[in-house]
């Protein structure tokens, strides 16, 4: 990267003057001006390079600037850069075919959106119309997006300022053994109690009032909690028993992140609706969608579906998806994610946990890992309080600053760091990142008891 601090200063000044950023107090942020990116790295205008262990917001599953995907977008722009959704367009047809061929079971119809939240909005709308019932059940410790229904379904504190109790949203506890809401001592207990809790919630809400249960197959931002064996199959069975639509949100976990095309493939479950976005085209052009079962598709076979978007299945986004999926096949990128998880990230993170008292738990699969940082391994007290801000958050801020100083851009959420590099991160890059994490964790260790 060529340093160009003057351009960097101008980019920053215009940003500060005019860009209104997500989730932020506008005067309290200091966004880094980014000059470029390639593969697993990006760099600033000073020429400082960072290894991106965040994949943006966990979406660059094939890394930045993959030449084949960039070329496909350029070609599509030259051929047909846009077209309205009511027409059959080659890039859209092909993207839908490639996605439907990979989604589990009979999820063979694809409704395209511009991102994940809109996918969740439409999946829940489909479930309500299909069942004629009003309520949607979702988990605490979840994130489903920032539009009105999606943020109210969300279980993390980003919901609170938006919490207008969206009509028909009910939260329940999903399994998370490390901080068990059921005081369970092992995975089998956690699974049984979580399923019983869901049954009880359904019984007391009234089964005939519930349209859908929505879960992230492996919750992402909320902590990468891989569900215990049997949990998702149990939810599937409960939904079937009560005629409830089962929605799996694979916006973050889908398209290779867990070392399989979809996280649902690890658990052998097929939902009725599955939402996706992010990795479908590595975020090169905004795209999301809902994969729909034949039964729900049938509901809208002779009755119009009352929803749509100007840019549903935008040709540039779909061309990027076609190229991304083909590149993932050709280059064995899903297998690469699985291999790096098994041979480098999993063992490497467990080894760090042995040496660093601040690491309470390591969990994950593929290129989807969380380190739970704690003050005290015995009590499991989080390194910073739930939803900490300001000085309360200082230990995590110090951890992050150390990583960045050594050229690693870490993903931090509350008391956790997530290790979520691109699916095609190399062994060398993964090891480089682990070495920096080692240094940053030494800073976190200073805050343990
Ligand atoms: N669902 C899940 C599981 C997510 O992780 C996200 C975003 O992080 C969303 C939905 C929302 O997606 P978007 O930000 O594209 O609207």
UniProtKB/TrEMBL annotation:
The UniProt record lists the keyword Transferase: yes
Name the UniProt key words of this record, in alphabetical order.
Aminotransferase, Pyridoxal phosphate, Transferase
The answer to whether the entry has keyword Transferase is yes
Give the source's domain of life in one word: Bacteria
> Pfam families under this entry?
Aminotran_3
**Which molecular function term from Gene Ontology is one that the record holds?**
transaminase activity
Record's Gene3D superfamilies?
Aspartate Aminotransferase, domain 1 (3.90.1150.10), Type I PLP-dependent aspartate aminotransferase-like (Major domain) (3.40.640.10)
Please give the CDD domains that the UniProt record associates with this protein.
OAT_like (cd00610)
Task: Please name the InterPro entries in this protein's record.
Answer: Aminotrans_3, Aminotrans_3_PPA_site, PyrdxlP-dep_Trfase, PyrdxlP-dep_Trfase_major, PyrdxlP-dep_Trfase_small
NCBIfam families, per database record? PRK06062.1
The entry sums up its family as follows: Belongs to the class-III pyridoxal-phosphate-dependent aminotransferase family.
**Name the record gives this protein:** Aspartate aminotransferase family protein
């Amino acid at each position: 990267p060529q340093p160009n601090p003057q351009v960097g200063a101008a980019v920053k000044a215009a940003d500060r003057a005019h860009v209104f950023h997500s989730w932020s107090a506008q005067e309290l942020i200091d966004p880094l001006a980014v000059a470029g990116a390639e593969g697993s790295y990006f760099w600033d205008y000073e020429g400082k390079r960072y290894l991106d262990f965040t994949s943006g917001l966990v979406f660059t599953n094939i890394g930045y600037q993959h030449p084949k995907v960039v070329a496909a977008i350029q070609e599509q722009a030259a051929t047909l850069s846009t077209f309205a959704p009511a027409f059959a367009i080659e890039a859209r047809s092909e993207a839908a075919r490639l996605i439907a061929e990979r989604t589990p079971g009979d999820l063979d119809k694809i409704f395209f959106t511009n991102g994940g939240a809109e996918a969740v909005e439409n999946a829940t709308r489909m479930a309500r119309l299909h069942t004629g019932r009003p309520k949607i059940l979702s988990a605490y410790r979840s994130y489903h997006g920032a539009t009105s229904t999606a943020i109210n379904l969300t279980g993390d504190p980003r919901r609170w300022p938006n919490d207008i109790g969206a009509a028909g949203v009910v939260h329940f506890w999903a399994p998370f053994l490390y901080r068990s809401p059921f005081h369970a001592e092992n995975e089998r207990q956690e699974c049984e109690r979580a399923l019983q809790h869901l049954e009880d919630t359904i019984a007391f809400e009234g089964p005939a009032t519930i349209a859908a249960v929505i879960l992230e197959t492996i919750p992402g931002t909320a902590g990468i909690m891989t569900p215990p064996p049997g949990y998702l199959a149990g939810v599937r069975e409960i939904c079937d028993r009560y005629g409830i639509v089962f929605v799996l949100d694979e916006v973050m976990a889908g398209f290779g992140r867990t070392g399989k095309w979809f996280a649902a493939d690890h658990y052998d479950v097929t939902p009725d609706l599955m939402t996706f976005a992010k990795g479908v085209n590595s975020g090169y052009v905004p795209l999301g969608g809902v994969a729909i079962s034949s039964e729900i598709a049938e509901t809208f076979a002779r009755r119009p579906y009352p929803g749509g978007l100007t840019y549903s299945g935008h040709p540039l986004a779909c061309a990027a998806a076609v190229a991304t999926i083909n590149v993932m096949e050709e280059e064995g990128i899903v297998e690469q994610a699985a291999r790096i998880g098994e041979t480098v990230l999993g063992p490497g993170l467990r080894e760090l946990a042995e040496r660093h008292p601040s690491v309470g738990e390591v969990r994950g699969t593929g290129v989807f890992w969380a380190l739970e940082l704690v003050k005290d391994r015995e009590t499991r007290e989080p390194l910073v309080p739930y939803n900490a801000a300001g000085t309360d958050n200082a230990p995590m801020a110090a951890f992050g600053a150390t990583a960045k100083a050594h050229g690693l851009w870490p993903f931090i959420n509350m008391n956790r760091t997530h290790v979520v590099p691109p699916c095609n991160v190399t062994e060398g890059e993964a090891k480089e990142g682990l070495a920096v994490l080692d240094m940053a964790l030494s800073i976190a260790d200073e805050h343990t008891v």
